[in-house]
């Protein structure tokens, strides 16, 4: 497994990570097997959050690592706080975001307890809280670092300006954002650019668009949206065939080819699917193919010209 640096930290993580939102008590055996398989494949980067299964994901991840005898210092564990779902905290009856110092510190303690760990490698505000000044959020995160409860700070779902604001008070090592061939916003809104400016890793969530980019699943959208996605998939197929990879591997390789590094968070509780995803590491796309895929994903040509897209290679 290829490894890449996580921002400016001393951590080298696998080029692809396991998103642990899929680890669920009703799929306990598969979930734990997926964590074990990840480690066997050389995947060392695991992302979870307090809200995934309202704590279930963190508990399953911690238990799976312990039961597989995987040493704590051989893996990089990321978790998140901020989103408060009904039932998570007696103070809230409505979904809210909370990045106050008091809430962050309590959330971190609770995550560590569920994981059965002493520290997190990466702690990420999940979504911005408009009611807390970034200076307060940063101070709480810095305190957690000083106390040895977290090693580094990342961010999730922030805009470029929000990243700048929080970066003024604490060092951010990564950005988690929705990013795939069916969701290009990070390239189009300056998110990847600010990550380059700040030397932050880009960590795409839903890199397979919740399975749609594997070709086997449609999301419950309006018809036009499903048709658009089906159209993109149809145009990706000849590329996958030409490279001898699956659609999912092609989609992950397209992400990983970008500088940053870009580290896709594959969400699965199926060891076979994870093994397939890991096969995308090392798939190198030609530069012109990468751009052709970008044009297909955008649904319009790049600014170099307005002529309709045509295949330039035999596929
Ligand atoms: N920061 C945020 O706001 C945020 C939001 C969402 C997610 N996340 C993170 O990102 C991770 C990934 O998100 P995601 O789960 O939406 O990502 P995803 O990897 O795009 O989609 C996962 C879905 O794809 C299916 N899948 C994977 N490989 C497949 C294959 N080869 N064939 C058919 N289906 C396949 C999985 O089903 P199987 O289980 O059957 O494989 C699962 O339903 C999460 O686990 C979480 O860590 C973060």
Features:
315 residues; TIM Barrel; 6-stranded parallel β-sheet; 3-stranded parallel β-sheet; binds NADP nicotinamide-adenine-dinucleotide phosphate
Quickly give the structural class: alpha/beta
Please give the oligomerization state of what you see: single chain
Q: What do the pLDDT scores average to? A: 94
Helix content bin: 25-40%
Main beta-sheet strand count, sense and barrel state: 6 strands, parallel
- According to CATH, the homologous superfamily is NADP-dependent oxidoreductase domain
**How would the global form be characterised?**
globular
Structure, described:
The chain has helices at residues 28-41, 56-67, 101-115, 134-146, 160-167, 185-188, 191-197, 223-243, 247-256, 271-278, 287-298, and strands at 3-5, 12-14, 17-19, 45-47, 76-81, 83-84, 96-97, 120-125, 150-153, 155-156, 174-178, 201-205, 265-267. The mean pLDDT is 94. It has 315 residues and is α/β, with parallel strands linked by helices. Strands 9-8-5-4-3-13 form a 6-stranded parallel β-sheet. It has a 3-stranded parallel β-sheet with strand order 10-11-12. The longest helix is centred in the C-terminal third of the chain and has 21 residues, at 223-243. The protein has one domain: TIM Barrel. The structure holds NADP nicotinamide-adenine-dinucleotide phosphate (NAP). Residues 19-22, 47, 126, 156-157, 176, 205-211, 214, 216-217, 248, 265-270, 273, 276 line the site of NADP nicotinamide-adenine-dinucleotide phosphate.
Quick take:
With 315 residues, this protein is of the alpha/beta class.
């Amino acid at each position: 497994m290829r490894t890449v640096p996580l921002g400016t930290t001393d951590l080298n993580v696998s080029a692809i990570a396991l998103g642990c939102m899929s680890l669920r008590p009703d799929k306990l055996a598969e979930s734990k097997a997926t964590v074990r398989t990840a480690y066997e494949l050389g995947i060392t980067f695991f992302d979870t959050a307090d809200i995934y299964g309202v704590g279930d994901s963190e508990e399953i991840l911690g238990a799976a690592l312990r039961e597989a005898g995987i040493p704590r210092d051989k893996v990089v564990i990321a978790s998140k706080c901020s989103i408060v779902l009904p039932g998570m905290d007696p103070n809230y009856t409505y979904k809210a975001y909370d990045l106050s110092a008091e809430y962050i510190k309590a959330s971190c303690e609770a995550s560590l307890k569920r994981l059965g760990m002493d520290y997190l490698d990466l702690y990420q505000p999940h979504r911005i809280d408009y009611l807390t000044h970034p200076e307060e959020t940063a101070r709480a995160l810095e305190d957690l670092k000083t106390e040895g409860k977290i090693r580094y700070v990342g961010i999730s779902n922030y805009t470029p300006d929000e990243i700048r604001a929080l970066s003024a008070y604490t060092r951010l090592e990564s950005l988690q954002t929705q990013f795939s061939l069916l969701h290009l916003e990070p390239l189009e809104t300056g998110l990847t650019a600010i990550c380059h400016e700040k030397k932050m890793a880009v960590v795409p969530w839903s890199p397979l668009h919740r399975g749609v980019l594997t070709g086997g699943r449609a999301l419950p959208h309006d018809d036009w949206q499903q048709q658009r996605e089906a159209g993109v998939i149809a145009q990706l197929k000849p590329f996958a065939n030409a490279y001898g990879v699956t659609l999912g591997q092609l989609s992950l390789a397209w992400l990983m080819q970008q500088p940053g590094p870009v580290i896709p968070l594959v969400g699965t509780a199926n060891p076979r699917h994870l093994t397939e995803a890991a096969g995308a590491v090392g798939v190198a796309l030609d530069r012109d193919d990468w751009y052709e895929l970008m044009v297909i994903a955008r649904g319009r040509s790049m600014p170099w010209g307005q002529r309709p897209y045509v295949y330039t290679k035999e596929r």
